[in-house]
């Protein structure tokens, strides 16, 4: 068995550091598909349970649930997959054709309105004042990293 050491050095506000560190560990663990007990951060084992930061929108991929202010909302399979894809890939604009390929699994163009309709329905279910999805006119959709969402993993 080999040991891999990854060093990430970022300069952030003291208040942001714990949340950012936890998000980086979660992202890395998901990307390499390792159990949490096999990762070490700063010489200490990553705790099995940690307090989640307050988030208005919580996505639970393992159970395919979305909670808005701790209230579950009903999403279709495609709505959930679209929201999860956008939130797992924040900070960049995703073209409609990319979303069709990644979420719908189709290479051919179904019409740009397909994505637009699903985003509109998703926004309606999430409710006012919480929408993490930004429309970039003529291009696609973007989710800001600081949009008040968290992707929870077991």
TrEMBL record:
Q: Please list the residue ranges annotated as the OmpR/PhoB-type domain.
A: 47-145
Supply one GO molecular-function term. phosphorelay response regulator activity
Q: Which SMART domains match?
A: Trans_reg_C
* Keywords (A to Z) from UniProt: DNA-binding, Phosphoprotein, Transcription, Transcription regulation, Two-component regulatory system
Q: Which residues bind DNA?
A: 47-145
Any GO BP: regulation of DNA-templated transcription
Q: Which GO terms describe its cellular component?
A: cytosol; protein-DNA complex
The domain of life for this entry's organism is Bacteria
PANTHER family annotated for this entry? REGULATOR OF RPOS, TWO-COMPONENT RESPONSE REGULATOR ORR33
What protein is this chain from?
Transcriptional regulatory protein, C terminal
């Amino acid at each position: 068995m080999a040991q891999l050491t990854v060093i990430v050095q970022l300069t952030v506000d003291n208040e942001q550091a714990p949340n950012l560190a936890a998000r980086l560990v979660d992202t890395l663990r998901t990307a390499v598909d390792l159990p949490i007990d096999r990762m070490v951060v700063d010489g200490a084992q990553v705790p099995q349970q940690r307090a989640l930061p307050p988030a208005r929108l919580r996505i639970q991929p393992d159970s395919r649930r979305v909670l808005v202010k701790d209230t579950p909302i009903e999403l279709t399979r495609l709505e959930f997959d679209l929201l999860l894809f956008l939130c797992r890939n924040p900070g960049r604009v995703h073209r409609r054709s990319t979303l069709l390929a990644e979420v719908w699994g189709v290479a051919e163009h179904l019409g740009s309105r397909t994505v637009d309709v699903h985003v509109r329905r998703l926004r309606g279910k999430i409710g006012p004042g919480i929408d993490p999805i930004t429309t970039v006119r003529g291009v696609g959709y973007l989710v800001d990293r600081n949009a008040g969402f968290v992707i929870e993993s077991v």
